[in-house]
Structure formats: structure tokens, C-alpha cells
Amino acid sequence: ASGTPLPQVTWTKNGKQIEANQHFAMESTPNGNHRLIIKNALYEHAGTYTANVKYKVQTQFMNFNLIITG
Fold this sequence. Notes:
Layout: E1 8-13, E2 16-17, E3 24-28, E4 34-38, E5 47-55, E6 58-66
Antiparallel strand pairs: 1-2, 1-5, 3-4, 5-6
């Protein structure tokens, strides 16, 4: 998601906002790439993740389903 200024991106899992912690990190680059990084993924991390991209007055949502197998 690019633009000037860059859009705000927040991440949710199953509808609840994700905060950075020992398992989750969020990165945004100046060219508009946004990533949610899951470190040492566990079965409990499976679910529906959504990138909420807000640019000025418009918000777009991108959903990702994460399945953990072992």
C-alpha cells in the first residue's frame, strides 16, 4: 500500500488488533511494503489475519488465513 503520505496499516487476528510482542512484529518500508512477521509460530497463531489499510478517508481490508501444521 503506497501513496503520499503513506497509509496507516494496522493488523488484526480474528477481529482483535495485534500489538507487537515476542511473537509479532510489524514492518513498513518507505516504498509502501507492509509485513506482519510471526516469530516462532505456534498452533494458537492460526486464524484469519487482516491488514487494515487506511489512506486519508478510505480504508481497505486484506484477509489472510494462516494454517499451522506440524
